[in-house]
Design brief:
The structure is a single chain. With 155 residues, this protein is α+β, with helices and mostly antiparallel strands. It has one domain. 35% of the residues lie in helices and 25% in strands. The chain has six helices and five strands; from the N terminus they run ββαααβββααα. Strands 1-2-3-4-5 form a five-stranded mixed sheet, with helices on both faces. It starts with a strand and ends with a helix. 26% of the residues are buried.
Length: 155
């Protein structure tokens, strides 16, 4: 499995800045091989959770998504059922940059998380610590070739 694309959404009024990686699992079957379709699904999903009443959301998440500094999301799908899945991690409450942010995760579909996505989050954290601030960090994605090299299982 590989990551096939990266995009960021930095200017939404409905949800925090978001870095997104599209995984190859289910990409053809679920998103019709369209990054635009994956992006549209992500935007729609983040808008929807941003409108959930805070009291309802607090039961399952430590922070309301609107109060989050940024998200990192991995988009993938389940080919057999055509389910679109988004693994989302939110970051907030920095104590100086780079500092240690609060981090929480949720999956938009009731399935296991994407193991490759966990590796991406670690690499994003390495990258974040090398930047001078949130704006610089959000503008840059990690090189997909390097990501794919790191997520490949050893034979």
């Amino acid at each position: 499995m590989t990551l096939i694309d990266y995009f960021s959404i930095l200017d939404s009024e409905d949800f925090p800045p978001t870095k997104a990686y599209v995984h190859s699992l289910g990409f053809k079957e679920v998103y019709q091989s369209s990054v635009a379709e994956a992006r549209s699904h992500l935007e729609e999903s983040l808008r929807r959770i941003g409108k959930i009443d805070r009291r309802e959301l607090v039961r399952s998440l430590p922070h309301h998504p609107i109060d989050t500094s940024y998200f990192i999301c991995i988009l993938w799908g389940i080919p057999d059922s055509s389910k679109k899945v988004i693994d989302c991690s939110g970051y907030t409450n920095y104590t100086g940059w780079p500092g240690n942010p609060d981090q929480y995760s949720f999956v938009l579909q009731r399935v296991n998380t994407c193991g490759d996505g966990v590796i991406v989050l670690g690499m994003e954290e390495e990258h974040r610590r090398k930047t001078r601030g949130l704006k610089e960090f959000l503008k840059e994605g990690i090189d997909l070739r390097e990501l794919n090299r790191r997520i490949q299982p050893r034979s």
